[in-house]
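Batch manifest, entry 17 of 40.
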Amino acid sequence: MISFSTIDGTPVYYWRANRGNTTPRTWYCTQAFYDRLVLWIRDLRGLSSGYGSVTYLVSAGFYVNKAGQHGAGTAMDLDHVRWSSGNTCSPLDRAHASGTQSVRRRYIAVDAVCRRRFRYVLDGWYNAEHADHIHADFGGLPTVCQKGSASDCKFVQSMCNNFTGSGLAVDGAWGPLTQSAFDTAKSRLGVTGDPHTSSGVWTSMMSTVAQRGFANQAF
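Output type: structure tokens
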């Protein structure tokens, strides 16, 4: 394990006990996972550059003494992102369920950036346990869109609902309506290739989704 308080220079704080606490905190993860976090935050900076710099992140944890990816030091729980422009994305405040479309789209944008670099991303649509944070971990790389994955399917259904007005049930079942909505989204985004088998196609699509989400633009 290595210790860190910043990811590529961006501070990572902890708010669970005291909202707004910006006291530096020491976190732990493996070197390989930290290297992936650096790639992730560089993606986030680039894709959200219209908001200015990423001022700080808030997390609920990386290495945690329990079973699974957290116990292996290969997971992140993301609570909040703040940019120098004053814009924020706050999974802690359940941004995925906001009544404001632009807030939901920004959440999906951050979610999509996570899906570029991490295989399993569990968000507010996935289940109630993740309503207040986005979980991202190292398991099962490389990243592709798996129809049989409830996480991937619910993300796609929520993405289509928020960017193309698909009106899908967010139930994690990849049926003909989800397939049709996904095909429409791919067409409108100019995606060629198969995001279910090609990591390059899927991660490129997630970049485009993130750009649209940060810009609050429909597909």
